[in-house]
């Protein structure tokens, strides 16, 4: 009913004025987030230059604007090479599809394509505008639940986290990524990760590796009344975790990815944790295990940051083999599928489904996570639901409310920062979720119960793939509230 009412109200609003039709020059105008609604077809300019040709040969393939990005990385994303023949009737759609592949590398603010034909031979030019690739972000956060409780403590300046988070994207111009965390203070974290999606001319096989060490003065040790119970120790660390991982990557393009990883994990909790939850690890205060994971992803969305059309599918399988034979091994399979449809005009529809299946003779408390962590039924943000199996269905109706184009910032010389795209979307949504658990503590009511919610949201999409979402959601328990998120919800 909520979806129907909002759809009617939105239909009464004036739609954005349609842009005049132009002869296709195979040059996509710079837009904050290109979508598949723009009609593409045979290029009138190419037809005028080479009339009567049913097929056209790619003679030269050129790239401009990629001062950092290596050309071999860009060529690997295209589905044609010099010497290939392209059908004239589908040339526009073919070049546009390849332009979007380059854009979805998420290395560029915009990607344009132009074509020139002479005697049946094409010269194709892809022009890119590179982003800024190095982001040092200072870390400063309070180690209390809010500012008031932190301010009331006499040792408040000892209860802060500080440090530096550094991300270097497009490392060496090869779409590699380096990520480092140095966090000191109340909670300690030291991390270094390297990710290379592909090596060689075809960029098919890649590599990933990383190491993480973490310890904290606080730990969520149990779920009571469907909320996390937290233990804080001022002079000790109730949790210590570290792991090292290596893996292989296989990719055909940015749309087809697969990864195979192996990791060693070591985890330890203090005796105080076992006092409150003796079965936190099932056996003792520490555990070690090897984890093997495989993830296969098909990503055919028009844009990865805020998709409006296309589809997304992912299958993830992980197996944990515990060392010492004290804890049963477990297997987790999670699948996700999302579909994005243009309804015409400024309206779009999205639906997504997630399912998880977990097999084990027994599960430790940290391994029972289901809804409320990586995925959730919107409106249940204050709760967590533990269990072996889960199902989640989300849907949303979106209206393009306001497209301000690109705002120019005078006085900022860098082209990487002096234009800010701003697009606003109005969204209404409905979620349904369910978690299956064999035995549930009496205090927890949400496992083995159908969860449902509905709400409205305002989405802001801007540069560097940032999405800001302000939602009002109301759940089946007749609880409502406003929530802020920083990612596309489906």
Topology:
Layout: H1 2-11, H2 44-49, E1 55-64, H3 71-77, E2 85-87, H4 91-103, E3 108-118, E4 121-130, E5 134-142, H5 147-151, E6 160-171, E7 176-185, E8 188-199, E9 205-216, E10 218-224, E11 227-232, E12 239-253, E13 256-269, H6 271-276, E14 286-299, E15 310-322, E16 330-344, E17 347-360, E18 369-371, E19 385-386, E20 389-408, E21 419-436, E22 451-461, E23 467-475, E24 480-485
Parallel strand pairs: 1-4
Antiparallel strand pairs: 1-2, 3-4, 5-6, 6-7, 7-8, 8-9, 9-12, 10-11, 12-13, 13-14, 14-15, 15-16, 16-17, 17-20, 18-19, 20-21, 21-22, 22-23, 23-24
Protein name: POTRA domain-containing protein
Keywords: Membrane, Signal
Pfam families: Omp85 (PF01103), POTRA (PF07244)
């Amino acid at each position: 009913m909520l979806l129907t009412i909002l759809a009617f109200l939105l239909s009464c609003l004036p739609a954005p004025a349609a842009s005049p039709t132009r002869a296709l020059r195979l040059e996509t105008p710079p837009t904050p987030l290109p979508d598949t609604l723009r009609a593409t077809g045979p290029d009138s300019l190419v037809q005028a230059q080479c009339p009567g040709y049913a097929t056209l040969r790619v003679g030269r393939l050129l790239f401009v604007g990629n001062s950092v990005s290596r050309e071999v990385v860009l060529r690997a994303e295209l589905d044609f090479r010099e010497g290939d023949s392209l059908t004239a009737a589908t040339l526009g759609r073919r070049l546009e599809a390849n332009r979007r592949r380059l854009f979805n590398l998420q290395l560029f603010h915009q990607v344009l394509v132009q074509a020139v034909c002479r005697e049946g031979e094409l010269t194709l030019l892809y022009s890119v505008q590179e982003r800024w690739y190095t982001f040092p972000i200072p870390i400063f956060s309070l180690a209390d639940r809010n500012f008031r409780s932190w301010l009331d403590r006499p040792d408040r300046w000892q209860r802060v986290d500080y440090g530096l988070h550094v991300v270097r994207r497009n490392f060496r111009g090869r779409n590699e990524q380096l990520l480092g965390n140095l966090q000191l203070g109340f909670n300690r974290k030291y991390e270094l990760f390297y990710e290379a999606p592909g090596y060689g001319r075809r960029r098919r096989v890649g590599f990933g590796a990383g190491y993480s060490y973490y310890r904290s003065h606080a730990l969520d040790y149990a779920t009571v009344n469907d909320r996390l119970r937290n233990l804080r120790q001022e002079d000790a660390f109730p949790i210590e975790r570290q792991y090292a991982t290596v893996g292989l990557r296989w990719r055909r393009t940015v749309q087809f990815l697969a990864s195979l990883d192996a990791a060693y994990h070591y985890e330890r909790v203090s005796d105080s944790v076992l006092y409150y939850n003796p079965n936190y690890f099932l056996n003792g205060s520490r555990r070690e295990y090897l984890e093997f994971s495989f993830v296969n992803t098909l990503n055919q969305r028009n844009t990865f940051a805020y998709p409006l059309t296309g589809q997304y599918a992912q299958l993830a399988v992980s197996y944990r083999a515990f060392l010492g034979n004290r804890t049963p091994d477990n297997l987790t399979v999670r699948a996700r599928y999302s579909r994005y449809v243009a309804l015409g005009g400024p309206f779009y529809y999205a639906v997504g489904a997630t399912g998880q299946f977990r097999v084990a003779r027994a599960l430790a408390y940290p391994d029972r996570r289901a809804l409320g962590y990586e995925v959730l039924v919107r409106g249940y943000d204050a709760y967590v639901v533990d269990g072996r199996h889960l199902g989640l269905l989300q849907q949303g109706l979106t209206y393009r409310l306001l497209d301000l184009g690109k705002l120019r910032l005078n006085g900022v010389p860098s082209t990487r920062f002096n234009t800010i795209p701003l697009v606003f979307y109005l969204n209404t949504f409905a979620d349904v979720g369910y978690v299956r658990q064999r035995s549930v503590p009496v205090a927890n009511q949400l496992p083995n119960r159908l969860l449902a919610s509905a709400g409205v949201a305002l989405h802001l999409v801007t540069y560097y793939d940032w999405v800001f979402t302000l939602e009002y959601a109301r759940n089946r328990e007749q609880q409502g509230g406003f929530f802020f998120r920083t990612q596309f919800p489906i």
